[in-house]
Amino acid sequence: MSRSLRRGAIAATALVISIASLTACGAGNDAQTLGIKPDTAGATVGKLKVQNTLVITQPKADAEGPAVVSVTVFNDGPKAETLESVKVGSVQAELKPSKGSGPLTIPAGASLVLGGPGNATAELPDGVGETKGGDVQEVVLQFSESGEVKLKAIVVPATSYYAGFGPSGAPAPSGSPSGSPSGSPSGAASVSPSATPTGNVTPSAPAAGASHAAGGDGH
User: Fold this and answer.
1) CATH topology assigned to domain 37-165
2) Which UniProt keywords are listed (predicted)?
């Protein structure tokens, strides 16, 4: 290749790189636009690695309802461990396995995932108080062998990427169909056909009147 052609190829390559850089900058720093998840809390204790720790609330900021802790725990040790408790601040989470009941076990050489379809859950029934997306909460995990792990986890709403990892369901609307059918037919059909003939005049009364009239005609 001649020197002039080589220079042209280098210039063209530089132009492509500069355009690609400008395009990336034009997308902005929004994590959702770039498809990048926010930083998540992680820690290592003993043979356990705790990663991707988040507190996920209701989709709307002003909505009341439960929240959940989403976390993945890897066990690189030779023995199984049990996740005994999860707390967010002073709020204790309710731990439920993916199937049935019993403790949340992290087998040796395997992992435990909290949150998401088909996984175990750590639910905070009353939410986490006055929090909003972007806030940070202290999450404390207690393990059977490795002890306590404390992390600072970001609070995110159950929208976008986290929609499938949020609380199982929002509370039902209050008072919608609760009192609708009550009292509707009461009293409408209270007068049944059984009471209709109760006040009818029996033949005994006109019989007496007829006999009196007959006596008068005799006079």
Assistant:
1) Immunoglobulin-like (2.60.40)
2) Signal
